[in-house]
């Protein structure tokens, strides 16, 4: 019988858990028993790193982007509901515009009311 039995991952980002067999001295494999992971070398030079850090620090806050209509304010709503709400708002706006265009006065009525002159009416 093997001293360590592989049991699986605790999550997508964690290391595997190992449970000890009855014959092994410690019941659970400790994370401190493993050697430290080697440091990963950066593929970017220091100047590029500094430029990126500066750009990240200058990046506007989310609230500013919402105020400038660059981002939508989700207010903690689930993404599926945000998409559904956006579709509903667009549909309502289309209906409102369609109604406004259908009830728009005819060019003859606009001339009759004195808003436009007869020569200003689009053909």
UniProtKB/TrEMBL annotation:
Matches recorded under SMART domains: RPEL
Highest taxon in the source lineage: Eukaryota
Region (Disordered): 23-45, 96-123
RPEL repeats: 50-75
Recorded coiled-coil stretches: none
Keyword Repeat in annotation: yes
Signal peptide: 1-20
Keyword Signal among record annotations: yes
UniProt keyword terms in alphabetical order: Repeat, Signal
Protein name: Uncharacterized protein
Organism field: Hohenbuehelia grisea
Native organism taxonomy: Eukaryota, Fungi, Dikarya, Basidiomycota, Agaricomycotina
């Amino acid at each position: 019988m093997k001293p360590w039995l592989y049991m699986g991952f605790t999550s997508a980002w964690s290391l595997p858990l190992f449970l000890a067999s009855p014959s092994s001295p410690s019941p659970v494999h400790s994370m401190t028993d493993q050697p430290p992971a080697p440091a990963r070398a950066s593929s970017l030079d220091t100047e590029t790193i500094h430029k990126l850090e500066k750009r990240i620090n200058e990046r506007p806050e989310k609230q500013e982007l919402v105020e400038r209509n660059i981002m939508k304010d989700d207010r903690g709503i689930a993404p599926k509901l945000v998409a559904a709400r956006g579709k509903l708002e667009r549909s309502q706006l289309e209906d409102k515009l369609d109604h406004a265009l259908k009830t728009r006065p005819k060019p003859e009525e606009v001339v009759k009311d004195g808003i436009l002159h007869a020569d200003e009416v689009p053909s």
